[in-house]
Amino acid sequence: MQISKRSQFSLRATTYGLLFLLYMPLLLIFILSFNTASSLTWPPRGFSTRWWSTFLDVESARAALISSTRLALIAMVNAIVLGSMLSFALQRFEFFGKNSLSFLAVLPIALPGIVTGVALRNTFVRFGLDLGFISVIAGHTTFCIVVVHNNVVARLRRISPNLREASADLGANSLQTFRLITWPLVRSSVFAGAILAFALSFDEVVVTTFTAGAGIQTLPQWILNNFSRPNVLPYVTVVATIVMVISLPIAWLAQRLADPPNEKLV
Amino acid sequence: MTSKAKPSSTIAISLREVRKTFGEVVAVDSVDLDVFNGEFLTLLGPSGSGKTTVLRMVAGFEALTSGSILLDGEDVTGVPAFERDVNTVFQDYALFPHMTVLENIEYGLKVKGVARDERRNRATKILEVVQLIGFADRKPNQLSGGQRQRVALARALVNQPKVLLLDEPLGALDLKLREEMQVELKSIQQRVGITFVYVTHDQSEALSMSDRVVVFNAGKIEQIGTPQEIYEHPATSFVASFVGITNLFSGDRAQQIIGRSGTFTLRPEHVQISFDSSQTGLSATISSIQYLGAESRVHCTTKDNLKVIATVANEHLSRVVLGQLATLVWKPDAVFEVS
Ligand SMILES: Nc1ncnc2c1ncn2[C@@H]1O[C@H](COP(=O)(O)OP(=O)(O)OP(=O)(O)O)[C@@H](O)[C@H]1O
Ligand SMILES: [Mg+2]
């Protein structure tokens, strides 16, 4: 497409302007985490690493970091197992209600978190299950499955069904076909889905709030709870920076591993 | 691998009363067919006539609705694909994209547990047969269409199957390459001596490569025969018009022109155009001329609007003028009755 010099310039300016608006606040947080002052004043008063070096001494922050990591890891593993099995089954078999099942599987990502959260909470309470770590994991698994499932389904669609037939034709049984053909071809999409699932779980607030019991506090919740407490505020910038630093490379990697939009597998 | 193959009279595949339906659609309807060892057999038919379905049932990808399939005398109707001693070359080649050419070719041997050294040996030999030495370490997406086609062929041949099934293997290639590959495929088949069952809807491909041709129409076999038999003595009006082009006369027209009732075929190359008014024959006007390179196709129309096609060598074309009245002449034995 041909674009005139002028519109090229204004397009570029708009793009950079938007990116600046989006990322400036993140940069501010990052800078403020090295501030000497204990309030979020601008400009920063001086450079110091004291919030960083003492942040792990804040018991509640450390506990939150640990439970967020555990939670995200477990939800991710659940999503890998359930999400990929689901997509293999949906791809492989024809059965009554297949389309509805596939729709139901993807629904949690479209539903507002607050609906999922309330529904899960009610269900847990109704059946007399304690709200605790397990219930949060269940909540997170519902939407983590979706990203793995979506990634794997997209990949499976691009793999010609002839490849499986060719493999069988050459004498491979279904296990060999899975191990030597299907798995190597979908592997990277499973990983892409998995790390996205991790990232989603790591900074989720709404479903967590409804499904977590009294004793559980995840990192995003910790931020939320301490945002208005002056003496803890600098630590919030540290934690926010940590969340950012963990999420960015994950998002980048996930994009690398997922399918390039217009490329065929041959 | 060096045995010069001649089709023998022993039977490699038998199809008995094979029928396949997809819901309401009857894809294949009571097909009986014997394929001889070492022969190059082509399934020819228009789109949707059931050729692919027959091939897929022989390979074991598709279950039969009824009937049975015998491989080497043994009933394999319920045997899964991976246990059948046949291999397939797919139209889109279905090469494994994450494997190199060599790994693709070794795949069949590997899953059957053939030792590494022997695998290498056999794969290298077959690479020579398909002239792909030097491409062993490429990935499929680094190959041209023709090269991929050869890899697909090699990947199947290396297993030395009893029968090789090929579903329009040249369909994705351009005309020039297709013609080259036709010659090469035929010569490879003769060298390795494996039975080929070849699917195409291209009648010239079928005629030029096959020992025998099976003409399909709407899931049924219309005729089985050598290329000459099919072309020169078509059994049905469908075969006559699908294989090559022809003039068909039936009903009143047959009565009037041939002097008998029935359906008759007359190939255009047997029709002569004469401008000698003393000749007896069918008078018609030259209504259009189609230049085809080596020859031309001349369309003639009689006064009661019957169209007859004649083939004319280009050296005689100067005599043929549009709109001219001519007499069409043919030898009586050029006319065949078909059903
Ligand atoms: N999986 C299927 N489900 C439903 N109908 C099918 C299926 N496979 C084939 N058919 C139908 O069976 C008939 C024969 O199809 P087939 O693919 O064997 O034709 P073909 O001779 O190979 O045609 P082509 O030259 O176009 O490849 C067609 O009417 C087709 O629509
Ligand atoms: Mg077909």
What this model shows, in words?
The complex is a heterodimer of chains A (266) and B (339). With 266 residues, chain A is mostly helical. Chain A has eleven helices and no strands. Chain A has a single domain (56-258), classed as MetI-like (MetI-like fold). Chain A has helices at 5-32, 50-54, 59-92, 98-110, 113-126, 133-158, 161-169, 174-202, 206-211, 219-226, 233-257. In chain A, helix 3 packs parallel to helix 6, helix 3 (59-92) packs antiparallel against helix 8 and helix 3 packs across helix 10. With 339 residues, chain B is of the alpha+beta class. Classes of the chains: A mainly alpha (266), B alpha+beta (339). The A-B interface holds A 160, 162-163, 165-173, 176, 180-181, 184-185, 265-266 and B 59-61, 80-83, 86-88, 90, 92, 94-98, 107-108, 111-112, 140-141, 155-156, 159.
**CATH topology call of chain A:** MetI-like fold
Percent helix of chain B, as a range, is 25-40%
Distance between the termini of chain B: 43 Å
Named CATH topology of the largest domain in chain B: Rossmann fold
Number of helices of chain A: 11
CATH second-level architecture of chain A:
Orthogonal Bundle
- How is the main sheet of chain B built? 6 strands, mixed
Which value, in Å, is the CA radius of gyration of chain B?
24 Å
The best one-word shape of chain A is globular
| Share of helix of chain A, binned | over 70%
